[in-house]
Design brief:
Amidase_dom, eight-stranded mixed beta sheet, 479 residues, alpha/beta, 11 strands, globular, single chain, Amidase signature (AS) enzymes, 12% strand
Length: 479
């Protein structure tokens, strides 16, 4: 394949179909992806590790191959998962020389489905921010406007997919880290129900149960297909959720039934989205009404604000990761090897007792019960994904000696106030790139279903995609 524009126009399922029929070879697909990475990555800084030679060798062996995504180029995030021939550094200087570890369960499932991993994408240190500007490797930039953030923490994945480097890429989501970058970069970003995708075998769960691993994609069908290849129980896993009888990619072909959909522009913290985003939320309401759904304005209860409980759940695992690295190296981490937010998180975790952690778990449970009761009168909830347009590079500082926790919290959670609640509750949530602002920036709208209703949520997303097609709306840095 020599036409990179044609390559970049495919979603993952479309590219897999081209490869399966022999119209494109896996090597042609991999070579096209590498060319686009080499063209755009010097500016966007999305891909931070490469295994191009190994990927080409795998593509030559693949042929038409087997598996749902046989021969399709893919990128892993430098966080949570381990790959046998690349280290996982968590975007931290302290892990810069970490050795590779055997493939995580989800990586094995990607490979079994035929995905060819080209490298790893950028993330903020320990995926702890809503922007992707690690001191270790420098900021990742938004393909719609390189002066702005692509969001975080899966910012590298979002920039890579939005710019045409690969059709889909791995993301992790502990507080919105798939959905926020998807909103910033005009992509589909889906966080599955808690436990639906594997975390092991290294971890029983991630970020105190807040995290799910999935992908950022250009289409709902890719999101559904990625769930098909990764869903299901794992050996020793903390959750046992059997693979559903019907494939998600089949379920989305059915028209969704009429739903009662609540909507709000204000987060439990009291933060309201900026007026232009609120106006687009109301346009989404009208589209859903036209599709036959009942839309109900609501105010989220103030006692479900997730921040304090979430911080006490994700900070201790971060501290434990650093402690284990110190033990392996036989020395303490130096200040210059960790960013300010990471050092702050260690201090918070060090002061916590076991009872403090259990209180945070109990608080998370109380929030989950409160949201379940609040949601009894409706089927789904609609919010915007982010509260403001993507901030400028450097506007949110979690890294430097100027770091101030209160200022960081205010900036980060004014930008992204709507996502972390559903990591607490474990509910499936999806960001869809339904509209753009007058200035041309994408804006994500978030739909949230009840836990376990992932198929129903994806059905509704597919119907919106059909009504408001977004695949031909592309950023300046495309292919």
């Amino acid at each position: 394949m020599t036409d990179d524009q044609a390559f970049a126009a495919f979603d993952g399922c479309g590219l897999a179909e081209e490869i399966a029929t022999g119209r494109i070879t896996p090597l042609e697909a991999v070579d096209a992806a590498i060319r686009i990475i080499e063209r755009h990555n010097p500016l966007l800084n999305a891909v931070v590790m490469e295994r191009f030679d190994a990927a080409r060798a795998e593509a030559k062996r693949a042929g038409a191959g087997s598996g749902l995504f046989a021969g399709v180029p893919f990128l892993a995030k430098d966080m949570n998962v381990f790959t046998a021939d690349m280290p996982t550094t968590f975007s931290s200087r302290f892990f810069a020389k970490a050795a590779p570890r055997p493939d995580s369960e989800i990586v094995q499932r990607w490979k079994q489905a035929g995905l060819i991993i080209l490298g790893k994408t950028s993330t903020p240190e320990f995926a702890a921010d809503f922007v992707t500007e690690p001191s270790f490797r420098g900021p990742c930039r938004n393909p719609w406007n390189p002066d702005l953030t692509p969001g975080g923490s899966s910012g590298g994945a979002a920039a890579a997919v939005a710019s045409g480097m690969v059709p889909l890429a791995h993301g992790t989501d502990s507080g919105g880290s798939i959905r926020v970058p998807a909103a910033c970069c005009g992509l589909v970003g889906f966080k599955p129900s808690r436990g639906l995708t594997p975390s092991g075998p290294v971890y029983p769960e991630l970020a105190g149960g807040l995290n799910c691993d999935h992908a950022l994609t250009r289409s709902v069908r890719d999101t559904a297909a990625m769930l098909d290849i990764t869903v299901g129980p794992e050996l020793g896993g903390a959750y046992y959720i059997p693979k559903p009888a019907e494939a998600y990619r089949d379920a989305i072909r059915r028209k969704p039934v009429r739903r009662r959909i609540a909507y709000t522009a204000t987060a439990p913290s009291g933060v309201t989205a900026m007026p232009e985003i609120v106006a687009l939320l109301h346009r989404t309401v009208e589209v859903l009404r036209r599709q036959g759904h009942e839309l109900i304005p609501v105010a989220l209860p103030g006692d479900v604000d997730p921040y304090d409980a979430a911080a006490k759940l994700w900070m201790p695992p971060l501290a434990l990761e650093i402690e284990e690295r110190e033990r392996a190296l036989g020395r303490a981490a130096r200040d210059e090897e960790l960013e300010a937010l990471s050092r702050y998180s260690r201090q918070v975790a060090a002061k916590m007792t076991a009872l403090d952690y259990l209180r945070a778990r109990q608080r998370a449970h109380d929030i989950t019960v409160a949201m379940a009761r609040f949601s009894e009168s409706f089927d789904l909830l609609l919010t915007s994904t982010i509260g403001t347009l993507p901030p400028a590079i450097g506007a949110i500082d979690s890294r430097s000696d100027r770091f101030d926790h209160d200022a960081w919290q205010e900036g980060a959670y004014y930008f992204a106030p709507f996502t972390e609640l559903f990591n607490i509750t474990g509910q499936p949530a999806i960001s869809l790139p339904l509209f753009q602002t007058e200035a041309g920036m994408p804006v994500g709208m978030q739909l949230i279903a009840k836990i376990g209703q992932d198929a129903e949520l994806l059905q509704l997303a597919a119907a919106l995609e059909a009504d408001l097609p977004w695949r031909d709306v592309r950023p300046p840095y495309w292919s």
